[in-house]
Amino acid sequence: GLARFQARLGLAPDGVLGVRSRAELNVAPAARIKALRVNLERGRWVLPLMGSTLLAVNVTAFESYYLRDDCIAWSGRAVVGEPFQQTPEFTANLTYLVLNPTWTIPPKILTDETLPAIRRDSTYLSRNDMVVLNRDGAAVDPSTIDWDRYDGRTLPYRIVQQPGGTNPLGRIKFVFPNAYAVYLHDTPARSLFQRPRRTFSHGCIRIERPMALADLLLDDSVWTPAALDSAVALGTEQTIPLARPVPVFVLYWTAWDAEDGVLHFRPDVYGRDADILAALDAPFTFRGVTP
């Protein structure tokens, strides 16, 4: 019974009454009801938009799913954004994949991590297979740049990490253009998938078994698993468009009803439930339209 309860709460179902299991058992029924109300409201927002085929990520469960014709064709664990670099909620259309992706380092990571590392160690760029490019895409000698003059937003160059074993995007990324520059991708840090709470990224979503997902999405006699592996082995960046866009839903469900009718709950890792609950509890105010 305890193991079943742990599985419903996203805990390791080991049947051991540890600290986290005890804490979840002590959550009052009223709190669970509040979570259900909040997520019924979330469902009202997005469920009417969902078709029978889609790619979904549930941020709080650290899981991703590919549904084809209302059946789960693929699922896998996910790593999402840290609490101070949260993965947003949105929907977009997945339109292409990139094998052996390069990684253009975004401004915040430049400011917080990359530029300080370059100032400390002049070999940092070469050791991490990174190149500096100007606005025209031409390579720039890093030794000619006064790194102390810039932060991530004022730097007039792009720093791009080449494909390879140290690239944080791994072998493949899944691109669905959006205002947040968030996408799904592989990762060399696969040990993080074993952690129960997987909030380690800068906002993008790392997924396990990405090549299996790519094979299903492409559904192409040319792009077989062997062909994908061969293309990855070349080590060069390659873009593969999808024959049809696939809707992507990045969701934040802290409670849901599984197919077997069992309720599941997850921690509100980003603290987003309170605002929705407050809005639901607020007195109703009619705002008429001025003619």
Secondary structure topology:
Layout: H1 2-8, H2 19-25, H3 29-46, E1 54-58, E2 63-68, E3 71-81, E4 90-99, E5 103-104, H4 107-120, H5 124-127, E6 130-133, E7 158-161, E8 172-175, E9 184-185, E10 199-201, E11 205-207, H6 210-218, H7 225-234, E12 238-251, E13 255-257, E14 263-265, H8 273-281
Parallel strand pairs: 1-12, 3-10, 9-11
Antiparallel strand pairs: 1-2, 2-3, 3-11, 4-8, 4-12, 5-7, 6-7, 8-9, 13-14
Helix pairs in contact: 3-8
Share of helix among residues?
Answer: 25-40%
Q: What is the 3D shape?
A: globular
Q: Rounded to an integer, what's the Rg over CA atoms?
A: 22 Å
Biggest sheet strand order reads 1-2-3-11-9-8-4-12
The ordered H/E elements are HHHEEEEEHHEEEEEEHHEEEH
Please, could you describe this protein's structure?
With 291 residues, this protein is of the alpha+beta class. Helices cover 27% and strands 25% of the residues. Helix 3 crosses helix 8.
Summarize the structure.
The protein is an alpha+beta fold and 291 residues long.
Q: Main traits of this protein?
A:
14 strands; three-stranded antiparallel beta sheet; about 290 residues; alpha+beta
